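F.,

This is the one I mentioned.
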């Protein structure tokens, strides 16, 4: 976070120095990475502020794994954990590739734009208060920039993987509860103790979901706002490069397309996690109704009725307690970004 603050100073120095409509393309190029860094810093700051909630989440997850005795339950939880592991690897690989392609595209575009073959321009738009274009300072700064951007991209992927892993864990607990609900009529002899354990499990699921919402609520809010601007700025660079025959066009496209996919995926992961959690929470009521409740007594059915009624209030992840994260919300972000891109393209 300390290095992010230092980078932000140099990045915003560049942005303020190029606040000119005559140099608009350069401004938008520098603004996309700058805003991405700002978003990462604010997300880390929010997660650090809510570290006690995260500790409670880890404690609840640890209890769930310790209570996992049955082979079927262990199988469900392991499958969710393996899925989260594969998704994490995919997101980290994509973010790493976006960093590599960004630097390669920056090198190609700068080489094509240089007149006398001088490539002394940093791949990330920053402005130092001193001259850093001489050797070996320039080469050292470029190397440090590459590893710092790569590390930041990995941190972004880790935070996206975290919310996905937590939601998948909750969905695994919901699947286990639904499985136990469907088998409840086969164990009538132990009905009171079984129902008591199901109600306790349902309460733990609700509590864990609420903690995840509290932990990621502010992060999701700034994610929505910032990603709209970042997607807009990167998309604008793609549009103007496609509409012109400028030199280094391939470099700009390489520099923009993969990061555009990575940023779009980042917004999609949050919205998908909220949508998936909501749909899974509704399955508890369906599973309770699908039990052989007509073989139970009236008093026993009343308990199932309470579970069905409580499951109607779906679990979700909100953006700042303002709106739920859904795939419809992701569509609205993409629509807003496309509208801003068209406006900027008309102005430019």
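My design for it:
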């Amino acid at each position: 976070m300390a290095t992010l603050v230092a980078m932000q100073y140099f990045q915003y120095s560049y942005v303020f120095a190029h606040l000119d409509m005559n140099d608009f393309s350069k401004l938008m190029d520098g603004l996309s990475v700058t805003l991405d860094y700002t978003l990462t810093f604010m997300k880390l700051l929010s997660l650090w502020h809510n570290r006690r909630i995260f500790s409670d989440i880890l404690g609840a997850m640890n209890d769930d794994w310790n209570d996992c005795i049955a082979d079927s339950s262990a199988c469900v939880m392991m499958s969710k954990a393996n899925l989260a592991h594969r998704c994490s690897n995919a997101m980290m690989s994509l973010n790493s590739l976006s960093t590599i392609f960004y630097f390669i595209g920056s090198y190609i575009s700068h080489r094509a734009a240089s007149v006398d073959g001088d490539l002394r321009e940093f791949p990330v738009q920053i402005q130092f208060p001193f001259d850093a274009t001489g050797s070996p300072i320039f080469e050292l700064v470029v190397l440090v920039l590459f590893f710092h951007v790569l590390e930041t991209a990995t941190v972004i992927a880790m935070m996206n993987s975290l919310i996905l892993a937590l939601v998948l864990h909750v969905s695994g607990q919901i699947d286990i509860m639904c499985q136990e609900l469907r088998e409840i009529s086969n164990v009538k002899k132990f009905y009171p103790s079984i129902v008591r354990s199901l109600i306790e499990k349902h309460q733990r699921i609700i509590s864990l979901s609420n903690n995840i919402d509290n932990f990621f609520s502010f992060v999701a809010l700034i994610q929505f706002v910032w990603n709209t601007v970042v997607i807009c700025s990167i998309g604008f660079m793609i549009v103007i490069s496609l509409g012109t025959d400028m030199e280094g066009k391939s470099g700009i496209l390489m520099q923009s397309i993969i990061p555009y996919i990575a940023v779009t995926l980042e917004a999609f992961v949050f919205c998908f996690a909220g949508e998936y959690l909501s749909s899974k929470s509704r399955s508890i009521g369906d599973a309770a109704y699908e039990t052989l409740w007509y073989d139970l007594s009236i008093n026993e059915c009343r308990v199932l009725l309470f579970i069905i009624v409580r499951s109607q209030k779906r679990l979700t992840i909100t953006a700042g307690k303002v709106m739920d994260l859904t795939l419809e919300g992701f569509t609205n972000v993409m629509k807003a970004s496309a509208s801003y891109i068209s406006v900027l393209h008309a102005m430019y």
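Residues 56 and 318 are 19 Å apart (CA to CA).

Talk soon.
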